[in-house]
Automatic annotation (TrEMBL):
Compartments where located: Membrane
GO MF entry, a single one: ABC-type xenobiotic transporter activity
Gene: jg8527
Reactions catalysed: ATP + H2O + xenobioticSide 1 = ADP + phosphate + xenobioticSide 2
Protein name, per record: ABC-type xenobiotic transporter
Species of provenance: Pararge aegeria aegeria
Domain ABC transmembrane type-1: start-end pairs: 1-257, 724-964
Entry superkingdom: Eukaryota
Amino acid sequence: MFIEDASIDQHYGYIYAATLLSATVISALFNVHFTWLMSVIGLKMRGAIVSTILRKTLSVTSTELNKAFSIGEITNFMSTDTDRIVNSCPSFHALWSIPLQLFITLFLLYNQVGISFLAGVAFSVILIPINKIIANKIGQLSTEMMKHKDNRVSLISDMLRGIRTVKVHVWEDYFINKVSEARVKELKYLRGRKYLDAVCVVLWATTPVLVAALTLGTHALRGQVLNAPIVFTTVALINMLIAPLNAFPWVLNGLTEAWVSIKRIQKLLDLRDMDIEHYYDRLNTNCDEDKVIIIKNASFAWAKSSIRRKSMPKSKKNKGKSQKKLTKYSIQRRDSVSSNEALIQEPFMLQDIFFEIGKEELVGIAGPVGSGKTSLLLAIIGDMLKQKGDIQIPECLNSFGYVPQQPWLVRGTIRDNILFGKPYDEVKFRSVIEACALTEDLNLLGWNAYVGEGGCTLSGGQRARVSLARAVYQDKQVYLLDDVLSGVDATVGQHIMQRCILGLLRHTARILVTHSPRHLARAHRVLLMQDGRIVSQGPPETVLNEIEDFLPSETESIGEEIEAQGDADDKQSPDLDVVSQNSLENDESMSEGTVGWWVIGLYLRSVGAFLTMCIVISLILMQLSQNFTFIWLTFWVRNKSNTSVNLQTIDNVHENTTALDHGFNVFDNIVHKIINTSIAMINSFSGNNNTSIRTDDILTNNMYPTQTPVLKASAFTDNYYLEVYFGLAGLNLVFTIMRAFLFAYGGVKAAAKIHKILLKVIVKANVKFFDVTPTGRIVNRFSSDTYTVDDSLPFILNILLAQIFSLIGAVAVTVYGLPWLLVGVLPMAFIYYRLQRRYRITSRQLKRLQSVALSPVYVHFNDTLEGLSNIRALGAAARWAERGEESVERWQRAALCGAAASQWLALRLQAAAAAAVAGAALVAVLQRATHAADPGLVGLAISYALSMTSMLSSVLNSFTETEREMIAVERVGEYITQVEGEKMDGESPPYGWPSHGVISFEDVFLKYGARENGESALRGVTFSSHPGERIAVVGRTGAGKSSLLRAVLRLTPCASGRVCVDGVDVATLHLQALRSRIGIIPQEPFIFSGNIRENVDPLRQYLDAEVWRALDACGARDVVTARGGLSAPADQMSRGHAQMLCLVRALLQKAKILLVDEATANLDQESERVILDTIRCSFGGSTVVFVAHRLTGVLECSRVLVLGGGRLLELRPPEDALADPTSHLYKLLHPDQ
C-alpha cells in the first residue's frame, strides 16, 4: 500500500522499516531463548531417564530382566528411545502454540481476502486428518522397526561376545546372514516410514503454492481486485499459515514416537524390584546368634511356573546304599527327569533346600555338572525366584562377598577392579593381594596395569584372583566362592586356600563350590547336590566317602589344575601381556577439523551416482517451478495495474539509471524471455494458439536492454493467468513428489549399504581389534551411529538441500525485485560465512566430544548387564549407579556446550537476517522516493526477504547439524576403512588334507600387537607331533599354552618361523579352509541366542540323527531331552553343559586335528572323564593337542609338552617324566621337593 499510494508521506516508510527491524530482532531473542531452555530441559530429561534405567536395571533380578528383555532392547532404551522422548520437548510446546498461530494467521488472512481464504483453508483442513493418519502409521511402523532393531543389536552383541569362537568355527558368514536377515526386516519398516515421510515432505513443500493458488484464484474468480498489497500480504500470511500446518504432522509424529518409547521404557520400570524384605526373613539374633544363613524347606526357580514341578519319586533304595554312595551310573543320569517332567519342560529348579551356616563356618559344595551348585549361590544372593520356604539372614547382612565361576572384570586398572569404589587402605590392600597370590603379579605388572574389557588383557588365573581380591577387599560377613580355585595352579590354589579362605576370611561364613577333595576335606561341612537337591550333607570325611566315584583320588588331586611353576623369567611373559591403557586399549579416537570429503564420498557412493544426480535435478526443477509460480503472480498483478505506467515514465526512469541498472535490465529481459517461452510451451501443449504471446504485445523492443518490457494490460484474460498459475503449481507438485520419493529411496539405500559393509568389516576383522576395542564401543556403531545414518542424517540432509535451493531462489527473486539490495547482500554473505566458519570449527569438535563421551555410557551399561549379579551381591549398586551417572554427566557437559554454541550462532544469524530485512525495506522506501519501485516486484522481494530471515539461519543450522550428523558416517567409516581384516587369501589345501594330522612348529616366535617391541609370547618353539598322537600342553599362567593354539589357527600371525600341518605351511592356506579342518573345544564355552540345534550345527551341515549320535557319544542326550529336545532354547545352561555342546560341535566336525584349550577347567571329575573318554574313543585316529587342566588329562596323552616363558622346556611321555625327579613335570607336581 505504501509503495502504490504516492499520497503517503515518505517518513512513514522509514517508520515501517524500523518497526519491521524491531519485530524481527525481538522474535529472534525469544526464539533463541526458548530453544536454549528446551536444550537444557532436554539434557536434564536425558540424564534423568538414563539414570532411572540404570538404577532400575540394578534393582531388578537378573531372572526378571532376562525374561522380559534382550540386551539389544535394553541398549535401545538408553539410546533411541531416550532420544525420542527428549526430542518430544519442543513438540509438546508446539502442540499448544501451533493452534494459536493458526488462529491469528487466519484472522489476518480473512481481513485481506475475505471469505476467499476458506478455499485455501479447506485444503489445509483436509490435510489435518491426512497428517493424523500418516502420523499414526509412522508410529506403528516405528514400533515394529524398533522391535527388529532390538533383535539385530542383540544378535550383534551375542556375536561380539563370542567372536573368537565364531572365527575358529568359521561361522562369520552365518552370523552375517543372520544379522542381515534381521536388518532386512528392520529396513522394511524403515522404508515404509521414509515413504510416509516423503508424503509429508510433498505436503510441506507444495502446500504454500497450492494454498496460495486456491486462495488467490478464488479471490480472482469472485471478481475481486488483485493488487500488490493484497497478493503479497496474502502470500506472506499463507507462508505463516503453512509453516505450523506442515509442522503439525511432525509434532504428532514426534509425540507418537515418544509415547511409543515411553511405553517401552515403562515395561522395564514396571518390572518388580527385588523385594529384600519379602525374599529374606530376618534372623532372631537371640535364638540363632551363631547362624548367618538359614534356608528351610525352600524351592527356587529361574522363572515362575503355573504348574508345580513334580517331585522326584522316592524309592526304598534311597534309604539304602545308593543314598550313601553315588554310582557312576547315577552321575551320568544326573540331568534326567521323569517323562512327565519332560513334557512339562519347566525351567531348572532348586527343590527342598535345607541348610544353615554359622558365622565362622566353611561349607563346601560338591556335585556333578548341572546339579545346581551355582544356582544355589545365586538363590542366596536373590537372583532366583523363591517359590516356597524361608531364607533367613541377620538384620545387618545386606550384601555378600560373591565371586562368580566366570570372573567379571571391567575396564580400568587392576587396583580399580579390586577397590570397586571402596576407599584405598594401603595396609588392607597389601594384605588382600598377598592372600590372593597377586603380589608377584602386581610387582611385575604394576597396580595400575590396565585391564581390558572382560579382563581380556589378563590370563584366566589372574582374572580369577583379581575377582577374588575384589570380594575380599569389600569386608563382607558371608562369602560365596563359586569354583574360584579351578582357574589357578595347584601351588597358587594351596596358597589361596591357606592364606585367604582359611586365613584372612577365617572369621567369616564361607561357602565354597569346588571339585577338589583336598579343599573339601578342609571344610567344616560338605553339601552334595544332585538334580537341584541337597542329597547329602555332613562332615567331609562322611560325605567324601559317599562320592568316591565322583571326585578324584588323592593321587589325582595332587596334579589338579597343574601349571608349570617356571622360573623368574617365565613369569615375565604372560600369554596376553598386561600393559598400560595407552599401549593396548586407547580411549576412543576423535577426529579433528572438518568432516573429510571421503566421508561425504562414502555416503554419496552408498546412495549411488545416478540416483544422486536425479535427486539434485529434481530439487532444481522443484525450486524453479516454485519461483516461477510467484514470478508469474507478480507478472499478473503488475499487468493488471499497469495503467499508470507508460513509455514516457519508463524513458524518464531510464535517463536516471546507472550502469548497474542496465545490468539488471538485461537480467529482467532474460526472465521475461523465460516466462514467454514457458507460456508458449504451455499453449502449444494445450492447443491454444490464440492467446500466445506475440511480438506486438510487447510495448517495447526486448532487444534493447535500456528499455523495460511491459505487456499490454489486455494481453491476457484472468482465466489465462489462472491456467498458467495452476499449471506451474502442478509442475511444482510433480517435481516435489519426484524429489521426496527419490530422496527417501536413496536414504534407505545408503543406510542398507553402509550397515552391510560395516557388518562385514567387523565380522572379518582380526582378533587384535577385538582385544583392544570394547564391545560397547562396537555396539555403539551398530546402535546409535547406525540409527543416525538410518534416520537422523537423511532427515536433516533432506531439509538442508531443500533450504539451500530455497535460499538461492529467494536471493535471486529478492535481488531481481530490489537490485540495489545486492550491494548489501555481498557483505552480509561475508558476515554469514565468518560466523558459520567460526561456529562449525567449534561445533564439529563438540559433536565429536559428545560422541566420544557417549561410548563410556554404553560400555558402562554393557558392563552392568554382564555383571548384574556381582554388583548387587557386593552391595555396590548405589556406587555403580553413581559411576554410570558420572559418565552421563561428562556427556551432558559436552552436549550443553554444543547447545550453547548452537544458540550463539542462532542469535547472531537471526540478528544479521533482521538487518537484511530492514535493508530490503529501506531500499524499497528509497526506490519509491525515486519512482523506481515496481509494487509487484517490491512486494515479492519483501516477502522473500522476510522468509530469508529464517532461511539463512535454517540453512546454516541445517548445514552444521548435517555436518554433525555426518560424524556418525565418519565414525562408521573409520571402522570400514581402518579396521584391519584377517588375511583370508591363500591356497586351497590338498584333497583330503590333513590326512595324518602331523603338527610341526619350526622355530616359531609369536608376538601380540600390544607388545610388538617386547618379548614374544612364544620364543623359538620347535617340535613335531606324530600322526594321531595326543599331546598334553602344560605350564603356569602365561607360559604360552593358548598362544600355541592361536598359532595353529592363525588367530595371531607368527613373527617368524612357521607352523606346518602335514607338511603344509598354514600361513599359505586360505584361512577359512584351514580353520574348517581343525576342531577346537575352547576354554570359554560360547552359547548364543537360539535353540540347541542351532548352537551345535548353525550351518545345518548334519542331519538330526547325526546330532543325536554326537549327543549320545558325550552323554549329553539326557540333558537335551530334559530341556525339550533340539528345538529347546540353549540359554541358561550351566557352564558344564555348555562345554558339552562345544564337544558335540567337535564330534560332528570329525576333524583330523582337535585342539582342546582347558575345556575341563570348570567340570567335575566325572564330567571330565566323560569328555576324555569321548575324545579317546571318537578321536582315536586324530591328533589331539590338549591344554591339560588336571593330571588325568596328562595321563590320557602319549606325550606331555611343558612350556615356560614361551619356551619349550620338555616334551616326553608323561610316565617317563613322572618317574624322573629332575623333569619339569615332576617338579610341577611336587613343588615342595
